[in-house]
Design brief:
Radius of gyration: 18 Å
Order of helices and strands: HHHHEEEHHEEEEEEEEEH
Distance between the termini: 30 Å
Number of helices: 7
Shape: globular
Length: 262
């Protein structure tokens, strides 16, 4: 996926990137030589992150310090993001509707809930059919041993799969859509090195999601959460973290889709 395509996707609301993915995109751009950086992409990432954190009203207790030799303007951009994460905190009372959810995996707070998938089952019994077009496309890009809900493997997907590589991870982002149901969204698969595997599968979920469910299938604990507008599901297989977002889909349909993770 080239820079123009990434910018077009970020400008579109049809596929909301997880904020962590947008941070990775911006970080990768900031690491480039100043002459090679794309100012528009950096500015757009900052804008999307600002809107995202304002909407989510999240607190982060710790923020990684960034030490990069870049122009002052880029340093200020990164500093602004860090400051934004720290200072935006407007507590609200969240009313959650939930099914049987393990208190080892999910902890509820007044204005968010926290997920730690490492406290659940994280070893898939088997992986997705390698005859699937999407699975083959991912394998071509170096992403193997993938397990996705079989229902989603029947969706249309963009072959402009965005691959990002860092020192300790490889991430693949795929946009998907079902022409019949009009459900659309995206899949983010992040495979981490064992050296940082203990940090995977954890994170806060904002109060915009007020419904949460949990299922156990194929050796994995899957957390599904959503609201009236969109749903998401997250699960962890060893050192591979999965984050799936679906628009035009309710929580019941999302649970049905998650149950096809066979």
């Amino acid at each position: 996926m080239d820079i123009k395509t990434i910018i077009a996707v970020l400008n579109s609301e049809s596929f909301p990137f997880p904020l962590e993915e947008i941070e990775r995109i911006m970080d990768a751009e900031l690491e480039k030589d100043p002459a090679e950086m794309d100012d528009e992409l950096v500015d757009l990432c900052m804008d999307v992150l600002e809107k995202g954190y304002v909407k989510q009203k999240q607190n982060r207790e710790q923020t990684e310090k960034k030490h990069r030799r870049i122009k002052l303007r880029r340093v200020l951009v990164a500093a602004a993001i860090i400051a934004l994460i720290i200072v935006i905190a407007v507590p609200i009372a969240a009313a959650y509707t939930r099914g049987e959810v393990s208190d080892k995996i999910v902890q509820f707070y007044s204005d968010y809930f926290h997920i730690n998938l490492r406290e659940g089952d994280t070893n898939a019994n088997h992986y997705s059919d390698e005859n699937s077009d999407l699975i083959q496309e991912l394998q071509k890009r170096g992403v193997s041993d993938v397990i996705l809900p079989s229902d989603l493997l029947n969706y249309d997907y963009s072959k402009d799969i965005f691959i990002q590589e860092g020192d300790n991870y490889t991430s693949a982002t795929i946009t998907i859509e079902d022409s019949e149901s009009k459900i659309h969204g995206g899949i983010v698969i992040t495979q981490y090195d064992e050296i940082i595997s203990s940090a995977t599968g954890a994170g806060q979920v904002s109060p915009e999601f007020n419904r949460i469910e949990q299922i156990n299938i194929n050796g994995l604990d899957v957390i599904i959460f959503g609201n009236e507008d969109k749903v998401a599901m997250r699960y962890l297989d060893n050192n591979t973290d999965y984050y799936i977002t679906l628009d035009n889909c309710d929580i019941y349909k999302a649970v049905e889709i998650a149950n096809s993770l066979k």
